[in-house]
Structures are given as structure tokens and as C-alpha cells.
Ribosome maturation factor RimP
Amino acid sequence: MPNELASRLEPVVAEAVTAAGFDLDALDVQQAGRRKLVKVVVDGDDGVGLDEVAEVSRAVSAVLDAHDHLIAGAYTLEVTSPGVDRPLTSRRHWRRAKFRLVRVTPTEGAEFVGRVGEAGENSARVLVDGTVRDVRYADVAKAVIEIEFKQPPAEELKLLEADACGKIDENAGPKEESR
């Protein structure tokens, strides 16, 4: 029943989250004793701050109160951001991870760590051991952001920016600029 309830609540919750300027990343409803726990995970292009979580929480709470016939009983609302350990499962996640270090487990082949560049419709450009390569989302079993405690190397960022401008040929290094 909770999964069915989440499916019924998702359109109205998503509308409230979108109206607040964020994306609904996940909606989960679980039974917690006599109450239901409604967990809403939101994200934005620039992340989500505490004040923004509170704003979204108020908006979602108002929507849930207006649709209390769907919940039918007491509930606890929890609104949160996805956290850095969230797997990258959509293009949006990859786009938001630009210039971040990620650990990728492909569906075939060895796990690798690389820095994310541009994220396209079906793949992302990832700098791995000095080479920018195309990583198709369909070929990724799991990808998570690696925590870094220092700024990324400037030369890696320059390579990814050059790649985004079309100045790098995959597996061939920087392209010569035409004059």
C-alpha cells in the first residue's frame, strides 16, 4: 500500500517541489507504527540549502494537507537533499556532478575513477587518467561521487573545458586550434 500511495502522491508533490524551483529526486512512503512516513528527496542545480529545504517542506506540507484524503491518517513529513553518496542514475545527476570526481562501475569491465565533464543526452564525458572518454549511461552499473577535500587540479578542469568546446579528440589529446 505505501508504494501505491507514493504513486498517487507523486504528481501533487512533484508539482509543489517544481513550483519551489527544485526537482523531485525521490518520494517514499512507509508505515511507521500508526503513522505514515512520507520522505521527499529534492535537488537543485546548485544543491539545496537548509532554508530551501524548509521552504519546500512547507510547500509540500500544504499540498499534502490539501490532499489528506489520499493519505487517510496521521503522517510525518521528511524533506531532505539526496546527499553526496547518492548514485548518479540520470542525466541530471551527471550534469550536476560536472567537474566532480566519480567512481564508476561499468556493466562490463573494470571499475575506474574519473572527473565528470559535459553530460549529454545518452552519455557523459569523463576524464580518466589524462584521457577524456565518453561514458554511456546505459553502460554504467553504478556511479557515485568521490569526496574530495581539496580543489581539483587546474589542468584537469582545463582539459574538460577544452573538450566541451570541441578542442579535444577522444583518446588523442588536445586538438590544434585552426587559424
